[in-house]
Specification:
Blueprint (H helix, E strand, L loop, with lengths): L7 H18 L10 H7 L2 E6 L2 E7 H10 L8 E12 L4 E6 L2 E6 L8 E7 L3 E4 L11 E14 L2 E8 L2 E8 H6 L7 E6 L3 E2 L2
Length: 200
């Protein structure tokens, strides 16, 4: 765990170096970490261990949603999204990215059109609705999704797993809200995403 003893600022300085080293040298790297953000940024393949035994493994974009569901005690639980830069809006300092057939607005990213990026979406930043808004909301990103799983992670709080295309999101809502919306597996819902950030 090379960054375990470092503060957040030092980690932020070293992560780009580790990322570049892996990509440019093109050699296998085994990286051990308990930090979801490090795994999300650096890993191509995840092996999850519990007491020395392999619990699950697979490509990062397939395995990370399962990993995130086991980090439910953390306020910073997030989903990982693979995207491609479509265009830049310099006037509003925004970048439009595509996730398969879906589009998302994120804060301006200083990479060229066509670049592949990974995005982080916090579970606490997604609210759910049964109908799309009619343009009267400040939320830029609203996606049609379906409920792929639910788990009451603590008294009064439910973590909802959402699927759109081949991608998964997580939404942390109150159990009361889940009951009011009568959420069930396979149910169509709209994910209102208040924040999307690139992993940098």
């Amino acid at each position: 765990e090379p960054l375990a003893a470092l503060d957040a600022q030092r980690k932020a300085e070293l992560l780009p170096y580790l990322d570049t080293l892996h990509r440019e040298l093109k050699i296998p790297v085994v990286y051990v970490s308990h930090a979801p953000e490090e795994v999300a940024r650096l890993a191509d393949y995840i092996v999850r261990l519990d007491n020395g035994r392999i619990v699950s493994n697979g490509p990062t974009m397939e395995e990370f949603p399962r990993l995130a569901m086991h980090l439910t005690e953390q306020e910073a639980t997030f989903a990982l999204i693979a995207a491609e830069i479509e265009s830049h809006d310099e006037k509003d300092s925004l970048t439009l990215v595509s996730v398969g057939a879906y589009k998302l607005w994120v804060r301006s990213i200083s990479k060229p059109v066509g670049s592949s990026i990974r995005l982080r979406v916090l579970a606490r930043d997604i609210s759910l609705a049964l109908d799309p808004h009619n343009g009267s909301s400040s939320v830029l990103n609203i996606l049609p999704t379906e409920v792929a799983g639910m788990e009451e992670t603590e008294p009064g709080r439910t973590l909802v797993r959402l699927k759109f295309g081949d991608t998964f999101l997580l939404s942390r809502i109150t159990t009361r809200s889940a009951r009011m919306l009568q959420l069930s597996l396979g149910q169509p819902v709209y994910a209102q995403i208040k924040g999307v950030a690139p992993l940098e």
